[in-house]
Amino acid sequence: MGHNDDMDRVFLRHYDSAKHGAVTVFRDSNCRSNSGRFDATYDPKGTRAYTKYDMSVRNTYNDDMSSVMVPYGYSVKLYWDDSWAGESLVINGPSWTDEHMEMQCINVGSHWNDETTSLKVYRTEFGNYA
């Protein structure tokens, strides 16, 4: 679990993506290995942006991401370069169909595997494509 694989406690809290969604990114494909959580803003029309440094604080390092889970109603925009520059890719969360739906694991594909340096998270139901 990051930081030299040392952990002495875990705190679990209630998570409701309808109120405050978060994207989870994974180092390996099929949503395995180290992961990092990237929250959206509480403002449903806002965008939360993460630089290379911000990503490292959240256990996700430069060019070290292969898969992602995006909650329904949210999107993540990946960038090749720091500070939201260079080539970009938008991954949308699935459409919500029922209350028992689970988030899907999305592999970013060979072109984007281990290429993300910064990202943005936002709600899509409000048309915010920052």
Can you tell me about this structure?
This protein is mostly beta strands and 130 residues long. The chain has a single domain, classed as Crystallins (Gamma-B Crystallin, domain 1), CATH 2.60.20. It is built from one helix and eight strands, in the order βββαβββββ. The protein has one helix at residues 52-57; strands at residues 22-28, 32-39, 47-50, 67-69, 74-81, 85-92, 105-107, 118-123. β5 (74-81) and β6 form a beta hairpin. The radius of gyration is 14 Å and the shape is globular. The N and C termini lie far apart (31 Å). The relative contact order is 0.24. The model has no long low-confidence stretch (mean pLDDT 87).
Q: What's the CATH topology name?
A: Gamma-B Crystallin, domain 1
Q: Return the average pLDDT rounded to an integer.
A: 87
What global shape is seen? globular
Order of helix and strand elements from N to C terminus: EEEHEEEEE
- Structural class, from secondary structure content? mainly beta
Number of helices: 1
CATH superfamily membership? Crystallins
Judging by the overall fold, what is the CATH architecture? Sandwich
Number of strands: 8
CATH class: Mainly Beta
Strand content: 35-45%
* Spatial ordering of strands, largest sheet: 2-1-4-7
Alpha-carbon Rg, integer:
14 Å
Major sheet attributes:
4 strands, antiparallel
Q: N- to C-terminal separation?
A: 31 Å
Work out the count of structural domains.
1
As residue ranges, the low-confidence spans are none
Helix content: under 10%
